[in-house]
């Protein structure tokens, strides 16, 4: 029998089946960004811990420079696959793959860098925030001193009013949509600029609850029938170049239960609340939008010569 945590992990994305990892491995944006960030952060002689190692790809990148890498995963299928893949890549001697719960595991020695890629749009489904917060407390209790460098270092989250086409060959289905950033999206119309609602700095204590209420000025006429959630992951800060190595996650648009017709100049109020690691429906249930100000209803000011 699975424990309550194991059942929740299966439901919320911790036990991602092996075949789904192909999508992550072929995501060049993700892979290139993590490889660059790991190459920047990890120095020769360092010790690295990866929490939620999956296929072991990120541990493989770290092993190119580190002396020792501890790669932890809770899914026994992924532990077997990671050991196999790392052996094929001739770095099994540097990477120790461990079957353990990231909420409980601590390395046998202090480490210099912690990699944790339990990232989902809006920090939903996967347990990135809670895992890191648990780890920091337990690590300081065991080893004291300074915390390791975390990769990613921070996350910025934003929301944006959208109009989506939900007609699928005559079948109307307002459904959650995931879209690749930087590509044309037919049937998708941005009705306002995004607004940042939370910044997570993993070097600082972080609350796992998000509650936000914000206003948007509508840029063009349309029907607000969805809210897009944007998640920009700052993998590493490159101080010497005053820049960052980033990974922009897929956009996620959640349909509104009550669409709002809006015109340019109207002010829309959006509110939502959820917990990091929670389910998508838990956010949808507390997502609302309403007009605060309708530009067309305001009296016109007439100037006389």
Automatic annotation (TrEMBL):
Transmembrane residue ranges: none
Zinc is among the record's keywords: no
GO molecular function: histone methyltransferase activity; protein-arginine N-methyltransferase activity
Entry's Gene Ontology BP terms: methylation
Sorted UniProt keywords: Methyltransferase, Transferase
UniProt keyword ATP-binding, yes or no: no
Protein's recorded name: Methyltransferase domain-containing protein
Methyltransferase domain segment(s): 48-137
InterPro entries for this protein: Arg_MeTrfase, Methyltransf_25, SAM-dependent_MTases_sf
Organism of provenance: Pseudoduganella umbonata
């Amino acid at each position: 029998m699975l424990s309550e945590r194991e059942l929740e992990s299966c439901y919320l994305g911790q036990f991602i089946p092996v075949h789904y990892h192909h999508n992550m491995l072929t995501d060049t944006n993700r892979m290139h960004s993590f490889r660059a960030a790991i190459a920047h952060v990890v120095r020769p002689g360092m010790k690295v811990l990866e929490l939620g190692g999956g296929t072991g790809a990120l541990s493989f990148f770290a092993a190119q420079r580190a002396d020792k890498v501890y790669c932890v995963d809770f899914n026994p299928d992924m532990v077997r696959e990671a050991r196999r893949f790392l052996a094929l890549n001739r770095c099994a001697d540097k990477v120790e793959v461990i079957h353990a719960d990231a909420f409980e595991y601590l390395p046998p020695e202090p480490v210099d860098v912690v990699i944790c890629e339990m990232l989902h749009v809006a920090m939903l489904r996967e347990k990135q925030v809670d895992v890191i917060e648990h780890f920091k407390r337990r690590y300081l209790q065991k080893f004291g001193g300074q915390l390791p460098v975390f990769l990613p270092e921070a996350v910025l989250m934003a929301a944006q009013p959208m109009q989506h086409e939900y007609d699928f060959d005559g079948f109307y289905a307002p459904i959650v949509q995931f879209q690749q950033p930087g590509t044309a999206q037919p049937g998708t119309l941005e009705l306002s600029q995004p607004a940042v609602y939370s910044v997570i700095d993993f070097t600082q204590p972080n609350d796992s609850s998000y509650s936000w209420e914000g206003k948007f000025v509508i840029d063009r006429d349309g029907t607000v029938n969805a809210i897009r959630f944007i998640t920009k992951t700052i993998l590493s800060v490159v101080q010497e170049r005053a820049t960052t190595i980033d990974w922009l996650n897929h956009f996620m648009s959640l349909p509104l239960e009550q669409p709002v017709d809006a015109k340019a100049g109207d002010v829309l109020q959006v509110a939502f609340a959820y917990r990091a690691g929670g389910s998508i429906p838990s956010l949808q249930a507390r997502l609302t939008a309403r007009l605060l100000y309708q530009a067309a209803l305001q009296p016109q000011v007439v100037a006389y010569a």
